[in-house]
Amino acid sequence: MSTEVETLEKLERRVTLTVPLAEINAEVEKRLKVRARTAKAPGFRPGKVPMKMIAAQYGPMVENEVLNDTVGRAFATTAASNNLRVAGYPRIEPKEGASVEGSLVFQATFEIYPEVKIGDLSAIEIEKSRSDITDAEIDKTIDILRKQRVHFHTKGEHHAHGDGGADVAALNGDRVTIDFVGKIDGVEFAGGKADNFSFVLGEGRMLADFEKATIGLKVGESRTFPLDFPEDYHGKDVAGKTAEFTITVKNVEWAHMPEVNTEFAQSLGIPDGDLQKMRDDIRVNLEREVGSRVKSRTKQSVMDALLKVAELDVPKSLLEQDAERLAEMTREDMRQRGVNVKDMPFPADLFTQQADRRVRLGLILSEMVKANSLSATPDQIKTYIEDFSKAYEDPQQVIKYYYSDRNRIAEVEALVLEENVVNFVLEKAKVKETTVPFDDLMNNSQD
């Protein structure tokens, strides 16, 4: 067997594999005898089928299995003896023009992992984010929680919460129920008609002109108005066209948001309804969420810096595998959302740029961990899981969930490993701390 390694270009290598036929034939015979012990055939008892019939029925399949296994072992032995770190899978094929008596000759073409050179970390600049939580942020969160619990009452009808005021016309914030019909050039179009259609004015669910025409109407009143569909409207049949709509109001309801009182606090999980406890609980949750998001932004800054300071070639095989993986993940995500992706093309090259970043970072992080002893320790993994579990009602159940599956522990281990790299880089680099406004942080979180 030849162990000479041929360098093709950058990371691509090729080796020749010579496999003795006698070794293959012996293994084929051995496996066929094993099959013969339980083989069945008409007219023969189990295990009594003649070897000629066994060979005729199973021979080609077993030969293929043995050949694949033998060549695979030969490649693994060659790679190990030459200290080759193989990236991806080798392409193994018969070697043209090669002839060795009593043997089969193959050539394996493959890539190796690259050398990763990390530049001077002390020369890079990292933006470390922070964000402050004040009473204003807590008040905003309470308002959001109130809006999530809004309920509607018909205007003009007396209710425990009131009647919505003297003005029973539709206003911003009201929920209206309408019948509508739209026509283009006097002809109704698909999707342009509905009965008992409800929406909240001011939420932007409908086109601005549609909402504007609805405002001010009372129950039983109608209005006819022109509406210009935008050129980029999602309905291509009507995009850029002008329709004439007629709407009739069936019901107008005003929004009532719950008061911030004991009952409201209890609905948020504060048993005694204490408002200060509610605010303290909201602050803790906000601090946890903000901490997660600023950590994510800082990690992004570190990863961007490492990509700039590291030098390496990316194995094409790993890039192709990850692009295919991303395509499959996208396909599965769309399938879960109810989209029919059966005949939808997902060319892997659409994901090449994203895959390139992922693979590069994976190789860089691996080098950083190996060179600086940054592996995740059991105590770090335990601490991470315990901290994460505090966000749930039953932390012990969450901890049990993770420790019951080695794959889940491996996921946490990878996250801790990333944290170790981030902290290591922050200790070496020039760090600039920046304050991110709370609203910007919450509206533009980075993964």
Supply database-style keywords.
Alpha-Beta Plaits; alpha+beta; 447 residues; 13 strands; Chitinase A, domain 3; four-stranded antiparallel β-sheet; five-stranded antiparallel β-sheet; extended; Trigger factor, domain 2
Short description:
By secondary structure, the chain is of the alpha+beta class. It has helices at residues 21-36, 51-81, 135-148, 208-214, 262-267, 275-309, 316-336, 352-372, 378-389, 395-403, 406-428, 438-443; strands spanning 5-9, 12-20, 86-94, 103-112, 117-118, 125-130, 151-154, 175-184, 187-200, 222-228, 242-256, 310-311, 430-435.
Describe the protein.
The longest helix has 35 residues, at 275-309. Strands 7, 8, 9, 10 and 11 form a five-stranded antiparallel beta sheet that branches. A four-stranded antiparallel beta sheet has the order 1-2-4-3. The protein is of the alpha+beta class and 447 residues long. It has helices spanning 21-36, 51-81, 135-148, 208-214, 262-267, 275-309, 316-336, 352-372, 378-389, 395-403, 406-428, 438-443, and strands spanning 5-9, 12-20, 86-94, 103-112, 117-118, 125-130, 151-154, 175-184, 187-200, 222-228, 242-256, 310-311, 430-435. The chain has three domains: 5-112, Alpha-Beta Plaits (2-Layer Sandwich); 150-256, Chitinase A, domain 3, CATH 3.10.50; 271-443, Orthogonal Bundle (Trigger factor, domain 2). Helix content is 45%, strand content 22%. β1 (5-9) and β2 (12-20) form a beta hairpin.
